[in-house]
Amino acid sequence: MGEQTGKSTRVHDVYARVRQDLLAAHYRPGQWLRLAPFQQEFQVSLSVVREAFSRLAAEGLLESVALRGFRVRELSGDDLQDLTDARIHIEVLVLRESLANGGTQWEADLLAAHHVLERTPIRAPSGRGVNREFIPVHAAFHHALLAGCRNGRLLMIARELRDNAELYRMWSPVVDQSGRDIAWEHRELTRLALERDVEACADLLARHIDHTRQALLGGRAGDGEVSAERS
After folding, report:
1. Looking at the predicted structure, is the pLDDT value of residue 2 above 60?
2. What GO terms are given for molecular function (predicted)?
3. How far, rounded to the nearest angstrom, does the alpha carbon of residue 230 sit from its chain's CA centroid?
4. CA 30 centroid distance within chain
5. Cβ-based neighbour number of residue 125 at 10 Å
6. C-alpha triplet 157, 24, 86: angle, nearest 5°
7. Which CATH class is domain 1-72?
């Protein structure tokens, strides 16, 4: 029993660390990840690394290729279209549940998450690219927005879809969103959620998600290609 618990802990440690590195764009899209270097780095067995990678593949962050191993998920315009459509359907559904069921603690958590978000710069200190500290803070805000939903399965799906979208945000070229006030969108989402204005909040969340797709594809719908060049 203790041995099994120890293995589960080691699997989680590898999973959590590699997941964090994936979302921080430490590995390139399509890059093959050999098991042996991770075995050496974490001082664990190959089976532990394989199990951790399988969990990441189940979440869509890695791809498992028969007889080849694991690689970082490839990015494409078509996949971004599908991903965005799925996010809008799922996150709007979860948002409606959240606004219907969230209580006083949910309201307090949402306000706290937004407070931290507003005080975390989006841009990196160099002025190029996204501030790495903004990524978990932004994710925490969107999680808090949806956390009133009582369906754990839906919340898990929503989180996985957002994480997949994070790969696109990190690996796509920096796009001009000068005409977009993202901070206002977050403030308005918070206000509408706390006022329980379901329809207005759902509409804004859908547009908030879709704005990112439009920006990354240069405002074009269809078969846009998403670059994997760092800015």
Report:
1. no
2. DNA binding; DNA-binding transcription factor activity
3. 18
4. 18
5. 9
6. 25
7. mainly alpha
